[in-house]
């Protein structure tokens, strides 16, 4: 029981010291400079991320447009061939009836 008590007091003491040092550091001018640098860096990253996202969005839209055009062209070609086949079948049927 004595060992658990001493571990508790040692942990409490170390935690208090670390908390005090952290508090003092957060109130210093150096911490304000670090906060400003971190904020500035995050702001730059955010701006860069927006640019990258806009470029990616444009590329995706372009790719989608190209894909839709290719599908439309392929569909048109298939429709033309189907129309040709229909005409051949009709002419064959007409010739067979004569």
Automatic annotation (TrEMBL):
UniProt superkingdom: Bacteria
Sequence intervals crossing the membrane: 6-25
Keywords (A to Z) from UniProt: Membrane, Transmembrane, Transmembrane helix
Source species taxonomy: Bacteria, Pseudomonadati, Bacteroidota, Bacteroidia, Bacteroidales
Full protein name: YtxH domain-containing protein
């Amino acid at each position: 029981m004595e060992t658990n008590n001493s571990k508790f007091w040692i942990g409490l003491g170390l935690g208090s010291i670390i908390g005090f040092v952290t508090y003092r550091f957060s109130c210093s001018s150096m911490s304000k400079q670090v906060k400003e640098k971190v904020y500035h860096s995050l702001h730059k990253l955010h701006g860069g991320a927006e640019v990258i996202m806009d470029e990616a969005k444009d590329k995706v839209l372009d790719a989608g447009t190209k894909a839709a055009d290719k599908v439309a062209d392929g569909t048109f070609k298939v429709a033309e061939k189907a129309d040709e086949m229909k005409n051949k079948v009709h002419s064959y049927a007409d010739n067979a009836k004569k």
